[in-house]
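Might you be able to review the protein record set out just below?
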Amino acid sequence: MSFFIQNARWLVATALLYFCSCFGQTFFISLFAGEIRQAFNLSHGDWGLIYSGGTLASAIAMLFFGGYIDKYKITLNIKVVIISLSLLCLTMTFVNLIWCLPIIIFGLRFFGQGMLIHIPAVAIGKWYGKNKGKALSLSIMGFSIGEAIFPVIFVFLFSIIGWRYSWIVGMLILLMVLPIILVLLSNERSPNSKQENQSQKGMKNKHWTRNEVLSDWLFWAIIIPFLIPPIFSTAFFFNMVHLTEVKNWSLITFTSLFPFYTGMSILTTLSSGWMLDKFGVEKILPFYLLPMALGLLIFSYSTSYLTAILGFSFLGMTQGLAMTIGGTFWPNYYGTKNLGSVRSLSTSTMVFGTAIGPAVVGKLLDFNINYDLILLGMSILGVIASVSLAITMARTPKISSQG
């Protein structure tokens, strides 16, 4: 509690950034999937390709713009990103031309899922040393809150004002939160997000550059299993409308189960922050994909809301672990001086992963592949990736947190 009190203004600010990122996340955009497909007469595969194309473009953009947080003040980055995201929400209200849809999806994914996850994670990595896991776990509560409340709120808004005007509500929320964030960050924590923080170096006692990271075997051994959560969770939530149709579930009832997912994500996030600071990321990393694998397995055989609650709970466990593990691994192993550009590799790869899931699963559905079978395949791949991480970390020297 004393840690939160001493760092409240910065933790609340980063939590609000994670909260704002929800408007570019798959779980939010997928709420509109049925209406968008109907409005533009799109098949599952067509919508999946549009979504994946916009997401893939945003992943490429992250490689070019992710390092800007190393060059410019965090408040300038935040102003540009949140204002841009709010305008895109407004644009979604009036879009009628199908060629505009991939552009809007690109913007939502780049500014929302990309930059508004990247900025707070990099800032925390630079602001905190040995307590970065704890700081991340507290800040990510902003994302978890949005994930819990937005599906219920916006599905309800559909019936009142329609799906298009619901996006205006999103715009208003962003514009109301922005001034609060700027006030909280009027005094930035020292060392700040732009300064060079010499207190934490990575492997070989140095601050790694992006090119050095790309030539390191560990990066490639880690980044491929890191793709599992964004690929599979995006594919799952992107196709949740289809899932409810297959299982003969009510969409409103199904989305009302999100708090179970979010609640477990919150519990896991809070506990994982403590575990990462105490035991080290290398001890936790090999196991974090196993709950997702079990959750997907449950959904592949699930026939009731009760089993869906159990599946959501296991998916939430991996979600909570993934958010803190990624924010801890990169500064610990590669240092903090170039953290913005280094972590942009991870963020862009993560965004790239979210582009793959909807496209591949959408096409499989168009080919009439049973969705339960697809979920089972995802579960098996999750177990294989977990084994790969265990082998990788066994070959990698332990890196202790500094600060």
User: Anything to note?
Assistant: The chain has a mean pLDDT of 83. Residues 141-184 form the longest helix (44 residues). The CA atoms of residues 30 and 240 lie 8 Å apart.
